[in-house]
Amino acid sequence: MTTVIDGQKLALEIRSEVAERVGRLRSRTPKLVVVIVGDDAASRIYIRGKRRACERAGLVSEQIDLPAETAESELLSRIFALNRDPEVHGILVQLPLPPGLDPYAVARAIDPAKDVDCLHPENVGRLVQGNAHIKPCTAAGVIEILDRHDVPIEGSRAVVIGRSEIVGKPLALLLLHRHATVTVCHSRTRDLPEIARSAEILIAAVGRPRMVEGSWIKDGAAVIDVGQNRLEEGLVGDVDFDAAVARASLITPVPGGVGPLTIAMLLRNTIEAYEQIESAARSA
Ligand code: GUN
Asked: Can you give the pTM of this predicted structure?
């Protein structure tokens, strides 16, 4: 029997754990600020979901909308102001940014303590060293799915298809720190189907609709589909779900698999950032 992950249900569990933590706070309420530049339609859908989830968990959320032609210096000075604001505990600048704005410069501008995306080089460095205090939301959500379904990671062969800064690279690191044997594949990888077939944990995060075929799946593998491809027929993943489901022991659908976990982990990161900032302020 294949387990088809209900990401919504899992996300609700995590969101209610966050809501309980927020409910126990006596002082300030954790606040997340999402900055969006330009009007990318998919980004707007994502951030609407993020705001709603924040409010339901009892977090304060604010959205800053900036026009696509915003100068980088203006964006950076908005971020510096958020860094200084003691009411703000989490800052997320939605990606992709319009052309002309450097996402690395933006990531460097965010106070590492408020970087709920884990994109600041200091936090990326901590992630590489295995002592991140905040982990990238989607990658952390994938680990949460595996852990909450008792998928063994230690000693397992994990194949990550995709090497993005936001998902592929951090996920490979998180799996490595959990003692998986990790292979990272990308567009220049030779013999991709054969490598994929060696995976006990197969993760697809490339953004190519249904690229992973059923024949690429090892019998009994855990298959995690991070793809979010918007086609005319709707949202589809990177895995050919109908073909893969017959072989996998566990699989995430698209939509309704990893996606809801990303938001839940963002809420968790915001309360973690809040707790660390407040405790540093108390001991200062
Ligand atoms: N755009 C798509 N996913 C993400 C994410 O995890 N963080 C940010 N900042 N932008 C995104």
From this structure: 0.96
